[in-house]
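re the bet — no i am not wrong, look at it urself. input seq straight from the record:
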Amino acid sequence: RARIKERAKTSGRVDDQDDEKITTRIRVYEKETAPVADFYKNQSKYQGINGVGSISDIFNTLTQVIDQRNS
């Protein structure tokens, strides 16, 4: 929640400034997204990455992870 509120200061996203929308987003993550991650963790097919940074940096990290898994 704190990270989202901090991001709102620079992102310009209106939904990042609304507490109710932030709460809903977190609930949806916990209900729908986290179970998918757990599913793949249990199959040893999950690789977490740091999603903080520029789009280019995150893309490069993803590319490296995928390349390592495919080699």
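see?? The mean pLDDT is 86. told u. also Residues 19-42 form the longest helix (24 residues). so pay up
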